[in-house]
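Weekly structure sync, notes
Attendees: PL (lead), two postdocs, one rotation student
Agenda item 3: pending single-chain targets
PL asked that the sequence for the first pending target be pasted directly into the notes so everyone works from the same version. It is reproduced below exactly as submitted, 306 residues in total.
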Amino acid sequence: MAPRTTRHPSHPSAAPGAGGGDTRLHSPLVSAAELARHLGDPSLVIVDVRHDLMHPERFGIEQYEQGHVPGAAFAHLDSDLSAPMTGRNGRHPLPTPEFAAAVFGRLGIDASKQVVVYDQDQGAYASRLWWMLRWLGHDAVAILDGGYAKWKRDGHPVSTETGRPQPTRFTPRNVLPTVSATGIAASLSRRSLVLLDARSAERYRGEVEPLDRVAGHIPGALNRPHSRNIAADGTFRSPEELRADFEGMLHGRAAEDLVHYCGSGVSACHNVLAMTIAGYPLTRLYPGSWSEWSSDPQRPVAKGQI
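Predicted structure, written out during the meeting:
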């Protein structure tokens, strides 16, 4: 399966269905047309992660039941890609590697599989699964560029048949480091980290807060809404455009100093993904994000624009 961009060349492969065919790619994006050409390939796992934060119980599964990419299985953001909430660990706590590995195994993912993940459109939810697979060392994972909206708009086939993945064993190759609330707090006085908030500007400034108990942002954080990653046609902006944008946010700091956060550790993955598209190595995530940070009244809160 060829990548959408030329910056990340594809893994050498044979045609799908040929003996020993390998559809793995070294690109974070795949186009709707390219995915359509590989439907039915046994080395491909497709996962639907449609979700709505305001209607989390039924939105995704109802949309999936009404129609999805043929062969896709469904993963729920709350129950499959998050740990239980305690009231102090955020709205979408990162599960343990063992829990995540069990979910991936149920979805039919192992080291031999290329994974393509999508949500309703821009990839804000799909990027969470993309990031979790990369977190555990599975690099053969791509986002469907433009999501289900572009898939349908381009006239590709739709199915209502429930995907039935063949369960397997997913073994993490490694567990990449993340940043904790303690690490964030320790960095504030030294400004040793570049904190990048992926929420909308009005939430960052503390003018509105529809989901969490406290409005505002982590002191010193910069704001870059994840929507800036998307072009007018609903697909990702070019690697060159994204690179220039992130270089402007870094102001000469190393990408290794950057830590992403958002409301609950979901849309921040979209900025991690965008930086990867732009050619950066995988940058770090604060999974608890604002919903965890703001749950402790002892942690400082800032409002307004830097």
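Discussion points:
- The mean pLDDT is 92.
- The radius of gyration is 19 Å.
Action: rotation student to compare against the earlier draft before next sync.
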